[in-house]
Amino acid sequence: MTRTLFTPIAAVLLLSVSGCGGDNQGGQASPPAPPPAAGETPAAGADAQASGGGTITGTITFTGARPANAPIDMSEEAVCKEKYTAGAPPRAETVVGNPGVLANVFVYVKSGLPAGARYTAPTTPVVLDQDGCRYHPHVFGVMVGQMVEIRNSDPVLHNIKAIATKNRPFNISQPAAGMKTNRTFTAPEVMVALECNVHGWMNAFAGVRPDPFFAVSGADGSYGITGLPPGTYTIEAWHERYGTQTASVTVTGTESKTADLTFAAR
Amino acid sequence: MRHHPFWQSVALLLIAYVLIVFGIPMLPGSALVPKSVVLQYMLTVLVGILIWVSDDEARWTRFKEPLHAVLVESRLKTIRNGLLGALTLMVGCFTYSQVRASVAAPPNLRSIHPAPPSQLTFRGKTISLTGLENPLRAQGDMATHLATGRRVYYQNCMACHGDYLDGQGHYATGFNPIPLNFQDNGTIAQLTESFVFWRIAKGGPGLPREGTPWNSAMPAWESFLTEDEIWAVVLYLYDATRWHPRTWGETEGGGHD
Amino acid sequence: MTSVFLLAVALLAQDTTQGKAVYQKWCAGCHGDTGAGDGEAAHYMLPRPRDFTGAIYQIRSTASGELPTDADLMRAIDDGLPGTAMPGWKDRLSAGDRRNLVAYLKTFSTFFADTSFRPQPIAFGSAPGGGGGDEALRTGRLFYDSIGCRKCHGDRGRGDGPSSPTLKDDAGLPVFAADLSEGWRFNGGASAEDIYHRLRTGLDGTPMPSFSDLLDQQFLTDEQLWRVAQYVRSLSPDAPEVRDVIRAPRIAGALPRAPDDSAWNDVDRYWFPLVGQIIVKNRWFNPAVSGVWVQVAHNGDSLALRVVWNDRSQSPDTAWLAHGGRVLSSLALDEGSAPAPQPWPDQLAVQFPLTIPSGMERPYFLMGDRTAPVYQWRWSSASPAAAVAGQARGLDRFDPAAAGGAGAQSVYDAGQWRVVFTRALATPDSASQLQFQTGRAIPVAFFAWDGSNAETGTRMAVSTWYFLALDEPVPARVFISPVLAMTLVLVVGLLMVRRAQRASGRQP
Questions:
Q1: Is the entire prediction scored with pTM above 0.90?
Q2: Which residues in chain C (86-105) have CB-CB distances under 8 A to chain A?
Q3: What's the domain count of chain B?
Q4: CATH assignment of the domain containing C219
């Protein structure tokens, strides 16, 4: 039931979050459009910006007992509760998609990119929407310097607090529907936590990267990173509850490599 | 009018009043002078002035002239009656305020440095206080002792005695008597370390009656700290405030004056 | 040019070297040797000491997420943060020491590394007129509601909003929404200007956000935000003065036994601060109740004692259970390991000696001891319409009186308990209960527990001994003595005048 509700929102998001690894809700690893930034201003050393490039895809699997997905108690916020006609959604951190896969995993290239490579942030913003007293998307990637457009679609007070160490943390408020605030991050950081203190259940995570090579696993556990220059990469997958997993992948041309990662229940 | 002893006296009184009420609090480290003390000072000044004016026969006569004039001269009748009426009313108000039912807190007469016992029992061990020096001064590494002392102080003492050791911790206002100010030259600066050890080990409940043990919020630290921890925090108190403890050579009876 | 730069570097180095010495001596005990807010005292306080390594500061003049200005840092050092363990250092350290300290604090974080960058304070402007007027306060209240202040701070500003139980700071530690009716405890000051500045900047590191975006996007005018600040200011009295003796007026007829009886409006109220019980095991370093307002009246037969205190929760409240657990696990406890939180009730105890002392001596203020018991009235939210009278002999022993105890009525309303205790001045069992007398200074003390804040047993807030004085009926001598004195003065005065006039009449 969560998914039926989530899909239309995610579809909107996919449009706006193109190029920075939004939720892949489609069920297959539809690779996001090539990052507009890649290749726009190739700096010295960034010699592998050719469109196309290599692709890493994979599925994030999950082993062990599936955690209880207790529904959120939204009784304090009637306006939000009303948006869930089929019942309250569970907390996003515990969403394990179809049995055995893990959604909302941030996958990025941790190392292996040419030293000194510079990538320009896309001019399109990442949209973080507050709707039904939840953040959409729950996990997203954004490039250093790329705009994050924070929107409030709820007619209630949300505050958006960023907890960061490499970036300046902030805490702003949006007490009215229709408010939009733009924020950027200045340094790579995996992850910047975002939370709403008015609604203790609302949180989101932003992976701030200096490059466009990242993705977030969808409800089917799949992800895809495209446009990679040839090289050997360490990719890391991050989940808010189950920690991190890494894999080493070598990309030589325009082929698609597979890197499945597994998280265990704890 | 000029140099008339009566008006000179009045002027002197006024100047003294201004100095006491407004001047003294402006001195660094001074507080407002309590009303009772102001009254005391003013009476002293008045007596001084009276001695001065009555010292010389001519001056005394001149001094009395305006007083006498008010009493007898018919042109000053209004002033005379006014003064008499005002005086009567003042006495009436004063009497009323004295006999009116009002209950004040009983005075808190408290011996600041009560006499210490000659010995105490620390967790079953008898320690003789007379002639006792801080054992940590003669053993181990002073920097380590001070680090221990600082830890003990910050974890246990700071809430009341404050991070500046001036008795103004964030819990200080909740207690009466307020916590001791170690920066003041009247507290640990006057005491031997064995006295401070006794006060820390036994706290408020261990005070003799003249120390009003029922009011003191000082815990008996023997139930929280070891002997060495207490000696270490004693070292820290003196180190942080730069006071020196009194030694047994200087004082008899453990430092109480 | 280079030499100027080198000189600047040298000066800065000197500042930080001297600042470090001051820091090590006076700051490191709480803030830690490396500035990480992890000094030896850190686990004995909530909120924790500031962690300087993240350069996240609550009290700033800059926008949310910006670094503070040097003046902001200086102000926090000078004035301290009211309501926390941070004192003001203006009278304790020299101006030079404090300046050097600011320079040294900035070395803890790389965010300050770019010394060419100067944080820009927000141009706050000044308050529009009419701040104290009804119209302004009505506007302020309107926007207080519409921008969601009440979500955390509650309907009456007592920090009891629906989101209050879940609030955490950046480190995940529990944090209370400010009780807006106790302005003297505001970290950044209590004036309307201070409050407006906090609304604009937010309190970084805490759940309190900045509301500046509302102005930028014209959802609110600057004047409306000022009205909110002025409304918040109106919720708190000035810092109350602590007076030692509660004067209980004698009133004719029935006593106000109901907590919200309008007769209480005419009875003077007294503020008594409470602090954590840090005297006997197990100590408590995080009391939730900061003080009690007390009013007493009597009618010659009985007395009524009203205690009003702010408490963010009507305990037991399961919504607060997790908060209690977070509080317990974030503090150093004499218990060793943190006990599991339970749905404890709120409690209040009013304490007297068993007999009115004739001299100075009283029972031990902290619930007496084995040899000298105290007389107490105990009230609990578990049975809110009753009080238990009895004797305590230390924190661990309470013996209820057999009969004729005190009555109680209570009301919980928007983050506040109001409890009225009543008892006859004299009781039949005079041996086990205090016999009240008019015109005497009767020692009295107060203890409070917030069950949702994990307070039970020795984990509580305590006061020292204060006094209660029940007014006596006005005796005739109160009026006769002044009249006698006045007559005497008048007669003597007239005699003096007459004598002087006679004497001068004879002489000329």
A1: no
A2: none
A3: 2
A4: 1.10.760.10
